[in-house]
Structure formats: structure tokens, C-alpha cells
Design goal:
With about 240 residues, the protein is mostly beta strands. It is built from 3 helices and 16 strands. It has helices at about 1-20, 170-175, 230-235, and strands at about 35-45, 50-55, 55-65, 65-75, 80-85, 90-95, 105-110, 120-125, 135-140, 150, 155, 180, 185-195, 200-205, 210-220, 235-240.
Amino acid sequence: MKKLVNLRNACAVALSVVLFGSCMKNEEPAPPQPAAFIAVFNAYSPLAQTQFNFSDSRGLGIPYGQFLPHSAFTTVSNLTMTAINQTTNQILVDKAALNVKIDSAYTGYIFGKEIPAKFVLYQDIVTENSSENSRIRFLNLAEGVGAVDVFLGTDKVTALSNRVQETQANATTSQRFIISPKTSGPQDIVVRDLDGTLLAELKAYNFAARSFYSIVLQGDKTSTGDSADAKAKALKLNAYRL
């Protein structure tokens, strides 16, 4: 679990700086506190930005289609996440329970186009393997589509295909990373419906060796106009590296 260990170490260093930055140089720093690590991906298409609060703490606004990297939480009992429209203060997700464990990493995904919004929490299990190929997973967060297939170039990735929209019940399958069937480097990512109709494409995405990636189908199939707003909400593929 080298990648996850690196993530933990980075967060531990950040915590140490905050807790002990004012101490004398000759003092031995205390060991970092055990923590769970939580990231957020915002695929809620009606708003350009959504605010995320954890328990009673005011959080950050995350733009649509962007990923907030993992943050450390040393207290996980009764931890919740609330998503809010920053303009109207309307609650989109109300105190979703975050059932997380210390020394584990997770990503929460908000999506949909209605109120309440949809939310799932998936564990980021990033175990090591001898293969030099990237590790990938796919999440269907799109509105107006049924099950979809994923392709790298012209080759269907069977393990990531026939995927319906995400629910928490899908976690065991969807949160799992697989070893990419393609070598690292630029690859076209393509998503089609089960009839073969193209839904979205991400050209020449550069996969780094032995790195972990989430591929996300986001947006609304019915958003087909030429306005900037319609284009922003249209179906598209996104990918990010853990």
C-alpha cells in the first residue's frame, strides 16, 4: 500500500507543522495523530460551485467538475458532510453520515441535478502491484443515461463496463481500482451506451505508470444547447489522479 502510505505521510507532515511549528527547535515532535483521509469530487451540475461542510465546521466551495484532495480527520465519530448552495444557503445534501475508519482513505461524490443531490462515499484502496500499468476505476455520475461501456482507444474495458449510475450499493464494485489493460502514456478514454452510441470522449489523457486514476462520466445528457451554461452541464469525461 505504498501509495496510501505516502498519502498518510504527507497529511501527517502537514499536521505536524500546524501542531508543532511554534515549539522550540530542540523539542522532539510528538507522533502524528491517527486520521482518516477524505476527498470530495463535485459533479452536481446545476451550480458552478458548491460548498461542503464537515460536521459543524464551515468548509470550502468546490467548483463543478473539480476534486478537493484528501484532508485528514482525526475525529471520525459522528462525522457528517453537508452540501450547500452558497448563494441561497439551500441544503443540497443534509448531514450525510461519513462512516470512515482511521488509517483509511475515501472520496465523496456529489452529483445529480435535483434537490436533494445524490451522494456516495467510496473507499480509496490503493494497494501496490508489480505491474507498471496505471490503476483505474470508473464512476458513472451522469444524468439521463443508462448503463454505459468504457473504452481505452477502441478496446472495451470489460471490468469497467455495463455500469449504471452510482449508488452506495455499488460501492464494492465501483470503488475498486483495476490494472489498466493499456501501458502508461496517452490514451483516448471513450464512453458509449450499450447500443454503441458515443456519449463522451477524453482525448489523449496521459496516464502515468503505477499511478491511480478515477475516470468520471458527469453532466446531463439533456443539456444539448449552444449556450455556455448548457455546454458546461453537458455530458463529459473527467479524470483525476489520486
